[in-house]
Amino acid sequence: MITIKSDSEIETMAEAGRITAKALEAVEKAVKPGVTTLELDEIARSVIVSYQAVPAFLHYQGYPKSICASINDEIVHGIPSGKRFLQEGDIVSIDIGAVYQGFVGDMANTFPVGTVSEQATKLIDITRKSFYAGLELCRLGNRLYDVSHAIQTVAENAGYGVVREYVGHGIGRKMHEEPSVPNYGEPGKGVRLQKGMTIAIEPMINIGTFRTKVMKDQWTVKTADGSLSAHYEHTVAITDGAPRILTAL
Ligand code: MF3
Ligand code: CO
Known about the structure:
The chain has four helices and 15 strands. The chain has helices at 7-30, 37-50, 118-136, 144-157; strands spanning 54-55, 67-71, 74-76, 91-100, 103-112, 161-162, 168-170, 177-181, 198-201, 204-206, 212-214, 221-223, 229-231, 234-237, 244-245. A hairpin with a 6-residue loop joins strand 7 and strand 8. The radius of gyration is 17 Å and the shape is globular. Helix 1 packs antiparallel against helix 2 and helix 3 (118-136) runs antiparallel to helix 4.
């Protein structure tokens, strides 16, 4: 069942989203060579709790930390560790969720560590652009897979692989609600977008194959071919006008 949020619920979600964005902003400032992903986790956690919110990922299905930090060929769900040092030339995707007054905000972005290759810069850029191409179609009268298709088109036109085994999702009182929001699909298909729907749109884009593999820690997802991957995510509300990004500062 897709839950439709009232205007006042959307405002609470925007608060949760703002806190999530504050945490990601603080992490972004700390991304540099020599920092560990555990230090980034601690920064995010402390910002979230300073706003009377709770990290959404901590203990979610047994997940041990407050953020996901996925480096280079890691696509998503990298577990922060005091032994993982960011190095010049890496790209790191940071995914953060916060629960505030019963509602969840969920967002991610991929950052360069120092100076990175032209290839990596382009991947990050196209991944963000694919999100915005999808966002633009989050309007009444459109269907969900119009959004999916727009994301897929931008990524595939650049020659990239669109991850299929992991997708975006409805979001609200729970982090994962219906509907699933794939980053690929047939235009004109999927549910009709309705005012008050709230979804997390999160393209995961690989330079090479779309295929993935899960590591021995049971969480970290990597590209099957070792190619670089980027991730970009916002929590979005469908309105009767332009879509509203709830995970905004
Ligand atoms: N943004 C991710 C998602 O939508 C975050 C979940 S990570 C987990 O699924 F550790 F909490 F599972
Ligand atoms: Co998500």
